[in-house]
Queue: 4 jobs
Job 1
Amino acid sequence: MVVTVWDGEANRVCRVGGVLGRFAPVKLHGNFEYTSDHTWVERSFPTQRALSYLWSGSDPAEYESALSGFMFSFGRLDDPRKRFDLEEPTDWTIEQMASSPIQMAFFTFLARTVGARRILEIGTFVGLGAMQLAAAVPADGLVVSVEKFPVFADIARRNVERNGLADRISILTGDLPSLVADGSVASGFDFVLLDGGKERYGEFLPICIDLLAPRGLIVMDNAFFLGDAVNEKPTTDKGRGVRASVEYARSRDDLDLSFVPFSDGILLIRRRGG
């Protein structure tokens, strides 16, 4: 057992088998070592060496594939085409545009955990996410999904109809601020998935917070936006939009925030004390 602790003077100390030793390297299995300068950064992501050195393979790409297979198998996941009768667009595949089955399983789990009855999704694509989220709401629940591109919204409506979910899912075409202004989208959502219009995340996030029910949860996808939001000065409109939303969330002392370093980054947001 190896634990990193701090003494009264904020010096890093390694505890090994109950014995304290400052700045002593600690040899573990194989050739991997935790040393005195080891940081949390080195064990924050599952593919990092510090968190995968007991895996029997050697190629990091193979480990990613093995991890995916592990989560699909033990998480009881499958290709959504086997679950839904899907019409897909000709120019984009669901693998390119839709949230992965692993992500959607996590989002749906969160929606169930908060007991969501009303869900808002920003960014419908072809309706796959909305149909999966619909499984989290009760029979009288509702998923409202907003899509700015009419071609995707039309496909999504047809997918919702052909899968018998029209009574639980409402697909709206348009711009979130406009739909809120005209009353098409009203407050009181238990769960909000913000996953569309990255260049306007900074504008959308305050609206989503206002639309939350008292104990509601916002899941903001693509919180790193391909690494551009991590740049102090993002280089793309989408990166700047995501960065603006993260900075705004940090500025609100009434919000609880938690990053999930998975996929392209997920930011969980709720009102403090809710």
Job 2
Amino acid sequence: MIQLKACLLFVALGCSALCPAWSAAQAPSGETQVQAKEQIFSGPQVDEQLGPLNLTLALGDSAGKTIDPVADAQGKPMVLVFLHDVNRQSISMTRVLTQYAQSRAKDGLHTALILLADDATGAQNTLKRIQHALTANVATGVSPDGREGPGSYGLNRAVQLTILVAKNNRVTANFALVQPSLQADLPKVLRAIVAQVGGPEPKLSDLLESGGVMQNTGRNPPSTDDTKPDPDAIRSLVRPLIQLDAQDKQVDVAAEAIEQAIAKSEAVQKEIGRIASTIVSSGKLENYGTSHAQGYLKRWAEKYGQNPQRPKDAPKSP
């Protein structure tokens, strides 16, 4: 409960200007630096065998039925999408990707979407609630193995999406996405799929339009100055950073994402500085994650902040 309150408070204190495509950071001063381009791993790697994968379907007439999409594919090309966190960006990526994958079903491509969560019932209800944003006729459900997924898969809960492309029950491509980007990440996944099923590489603009991404721009135009990020994306990255039981490696992964955002956007840099400064000056820094996480917050406050005064109306720390 303390962790949840801390996460919500972090957002309330000003997490309102972060951007997508976050993936690299430096450690706090005085500590070992994290390599900016350090690769993040999640799931079986290229050339590794896919093990059994139980999936409890959540949608349609087969809801409640448990299947093994790996066994069902019988060695044919397949795409497995592991959804670690439900937010606008992860669902947008999932929708566009699975729509394309489903369009290649006639070429023998199998596709499955697996939501990972500790509360299986709650996860099934989530899928039912958002099924309008998902692709029909794709095996969609919840892993009975909880948030970690099947142990033999070695999935990383610090990422938002793990996407596996496979053939003959062996992984041909692996994508561990901390912050999914349709423009940066999707083309790489598409190329990996086309490499297995053949045909021309689809145009990204066509897929975005058919997936409803471009159709929504009139109601929700994308920001060009990075000042209006997705609040869900903020929470998904803040949460692993400030968990009180987080391991140093998990904190580093979350910090890498934030630091990459800072490197790409001056607006994000200013906002992170303001947020970190507000937290550090609040006198309640100990409520925000481990000492390792607090080191990052101190560093950002010193480097990017402007020593702001504590707002009179700022929410109280738990």
Job 3
Amino acid sequence: MVRKRIALVFIGNYKSWSGGIIYILNLIQTFNEFDFNTKPEILVIHSPDSPIEDIIKINYPFIAFQLFNPNKIHLLINAVSRRILGRNLLKLKINSQIPASIYPYNAHLAFEDIPKKIYWIPDFQYLHLPQMFSSKELNSTFKRHLYISTLSDTVVFSSNDAMKDYVTNFPNFKNKLELLKFAQRLPEFNHLNINTIKEKYKVDRPYFFVPNQFWKHKNHITVLKSIELARKNYKDLLVVFT
């Protein structure tokens, strides 16, 4: 039996992009629930700071790892060549059997020998909330999406709204579009005692729970302003941020 072989990009860490890290962990956990005969072989492309120990804990039976740590000159040459030639001039090698596909791909990875490259665009926050991003971030993200739209590769979206945004803003796209809705798998909390945690953080009454990460676009300021207003009538109001 020949197993499908795929590469998953696991670059970064919880500090730089926790959403992307958790997304890949969820994918591997999902693959681990497949029937034994349909489980694919996974090659994890990771950076030096990636939390690969969390992947190892999943105990996936068919998995290997390859470090992605190219030098800055290599990245610069490819960035220039993509702008001028529309492709990477220098390509990186896979150290083992070449996977059939790689996801979520980014052009700077330069794994040109992998035949099927699948991109992922989870949302278009930079278009809907431009005030939350710097002009440099807005420009670079738009250019990256514009470049992707010129390719014949598949693009995966996390919602129908994101796919509609793409079609609207990049109407000349050449890609095949696919929808894969984001599903969160929370870790087990059975070993934690909620009463101990409440005591530790002095949570002594009913509370409003805000688990969002502290990014600008999560708009925590609205919650804080609401608390200020609500406490005029509800002195005991308690809000818990994680």
Job 4
Amino acid sequence: MLWTSLNQSPFYRVLRGMSILQRIRAQSTRWAGRLAVIGVLMVNAGCASLVSSAASKFADNLSAAVLNQNDPEIVRDGAPAYLLLLDSLLEGSPEDPALLAAAASLYATYGTVFAADPDRAARLTDRARTYSTKAMCVSYRASCEWDGMLFEDYAQTLDGLSEKHADVVFSHGLASLAYIRAHSSDYAAIALLPYSEALFERYMDINDGSDDGVVHTYLGILNTLIPPALGGKPDKGQEHFLRAIELSGGTDLSAKVEYANGYARLLYERDLHDRLLTEVLAADADVPGVTLLNVLAQRQAKILLESADDYF
């Protein structure tokens, strides 16, 4: 989501995706690994192993610091430096799938979480999807033909994805979701919904399970972006939101906010909406690994509650 709501709403997940900053968290484990890759690329080959170890430790510490930060503005103001860093590294290594995936994730996250201007969000998420599409193509040749492919044919190509493709698959799914949200008035973007859903479902098959809660939130969003009359599947979305909440033990407040914003508002269930958001505001946001996400979720919950009378 953006700072305000779905067709402007904040994208907590996408941390979950600078997790490479929000939905940072969904990427927190990947953020550390990718920063380590960046560190290695910046040093002499002769001392690469030594610096790799230092870079990895730095990356781990940076990731933890970002996710445990309770002031989102600090993260927002610092992230553009990493966007430029990744762009500069890609100038020298334009075919590196790890760098492409990292750039895609960070642009997707920043564009959905921190870009308040819709036009800017559209530009940033467009770049994110361009990077992720290239990362997929470099890593998995069959994906080079995905653009314009019929869904039935696309679904068949997903069987060839394996555990080694997990990182780029996650990045492409995240970038696609960010792109769809930022271009929700574009029917061509909405047509990508079933493709993104199928990709995330395949991701859960090839991943180690550590990101399942995050992915269930993403799938909940994808199924509630549009009303049932236009092909939305709110009941399925609700199942995913409930599973995401269960997997986090209720500590990831963004899942409840997305549930309220995506499902309860879509079906005009005021009681559910207010109950979820009240629970979010009453919860302790200071939870290791999700503090930033929770602070952002509470801000969004406050906005949604304050606008509830007008909405319902």
